């Protein structure tokens, strides 16, 4: 069962309070899992139990996503705010310098946590922030279109579409290379998570000027990219390697933008290898 915890974090205007929903499983060295924009912690469900066999796994709903409340009024959804929130969250759970793995937005946050030396290792799956301006506009347009579609469809239609492989493809083929493998229940839940994400617009707005150009020399870094990523094209992995020259760059054959469901065994192995 997931839980929710409240904690304080520092801002330029003084301490504020936030709450985060999380799922915790397993034992071993701590591993923090961060999902992408519009998603929720359940994005990691295909790999959670594999990871939990060797790690104390904490999968979070980022602020304003899943069932985590929005950030307090006046707080931006940029790296300078969300990174301290995640640091304070780990402190509240009694976790010191976890390993971290993130996908898309979560991958960008994972690299930022590594840059701030708040984690032991970083595994970034198709991380945001290595795009050209044209690629960023394409990704943001696609995300807005996905959100608009989710908002426009009545729940009974979403449920009906999710019952067939063709319907699941229509709903999720932008992020999965093998959308038919996703369960109907998971597709309904993540479509509703996208439509109900209170932090979606603010997060996109904060990302308009983001380019991750800093090295992360203090911790081991793995960057992995699906060969079938249709949202953040795999050539962005080459830019990530140039920005973080010490990173291990891994190819995920046959995987889309959210690779955990496309090949759980491969993704779990990449994360465990990166966090040894």
What does this structure look like?
With 276 residues, the chain is α/β, with parallel strands linked by helices. The chain is built from ten helices and eight strands. It has helices at residues 45-52, 79-93, 105-115, 133-152, 155-162, 165-172, 184-195, 200-207, 236-243, 264-274, and strands at residues 3-11, 14-25, 29-34, 55-60, 99-103, 121-125, 221-226, 248-252. Strands 1-2-4-3-5-6-7-8 form an eight-stranded mixed sheet, with helices on both faces. Strand 3 (29-34), helix 1 (45-52) and strand 4 form a beta-alpha-beta unit. Helix 1 packs across helix 10 (264-274), helix 5 (155-162) crosses helix 6 (165-172) and helix 5 packs antiparallel against helix 7. The longest helix has 20 residues, at 133-152. The protein is globular and about 45 Å long. It starts with a strand and ends with a helix. The relative contact order is 0.16.
The computed structural class is alpha/beta
Low-confidence stretches: none
* Shape estimate: globular
Please report the total strand number as a whole number: 8
Question: What is the number of helices?
Answer: 10
Helix content: 25-40%
Give the strand order of the largest sheet, numbering strands 1, 2, ... along the chain.
Answer: 1-2-4-3-5-6-7-8
- Cα-based radius of gyration, to the nearest Å: 17 Å
User: How far apart are the termini?
Assistant: 27 Å
Strand content: 15-25%
Mean pLDDT figure: 97
The helix/strand series, from N terminus to C terminus, equals EEEHEHEHEHHHHHEHEH
Largest sheet, strands/sense/barrel: 8 strands, mixed
């Amino acid at each position: 069962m997931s839980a929710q915890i409240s904690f304080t974090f520092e801002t330029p205007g003084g301490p504020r309070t936030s709450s985060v929903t999380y799922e915790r499983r397993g034992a071993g060295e701590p591993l923090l899992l961060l999902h992408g924009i519009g998603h929720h912690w359940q994005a990691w469900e295909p790999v959670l139990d594999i990871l939990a066999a060797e790690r104390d796994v904490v999968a979070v709903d980022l602020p304003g996503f899943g069932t985590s409340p929005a950030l307090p009024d006046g707080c931006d959804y940029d790296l300078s705010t969300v990174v301290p929130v995640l640091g304070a969250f780990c402190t509240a759970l009694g976790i010191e310098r976890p390993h971290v793995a993130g996908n898309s937005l979560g991958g960008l946050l994972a690299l930022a946590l590594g840059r701030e030396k708040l984690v032991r290792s970083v595994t970034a799956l198709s991380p945001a922030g290595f795009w050209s301006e044209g690629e960023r506009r394409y990704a943001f347009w696609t995300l807005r279109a996905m959100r608009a579609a989710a908002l426009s469809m009545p729940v009974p239609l979403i449920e009906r579409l999710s019952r067939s492989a063709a319907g699941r493809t229509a709903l999720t083929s932008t992020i999965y290379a093998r959308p038919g493998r996703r369960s109907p229940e998971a597709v309904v839940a993540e479509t509703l998570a996208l439509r109900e994400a209170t932090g979606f617009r603010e997060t996109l707005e904060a990302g308009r000027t983001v380019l991750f150009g800093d090295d992360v020399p203090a911790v081991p870094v793995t960057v992995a990219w699906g060969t079938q990523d249709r949202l953040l094209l795999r050539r962005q992995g080459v830019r990530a390697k140039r920005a973080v020259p010490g990173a291990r760059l891994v190819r995920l054959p046959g995987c889309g933008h959210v690779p955990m469901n496309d090949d759980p065994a491969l993704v779990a192995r990449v994360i465990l290898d990166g966090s040894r």
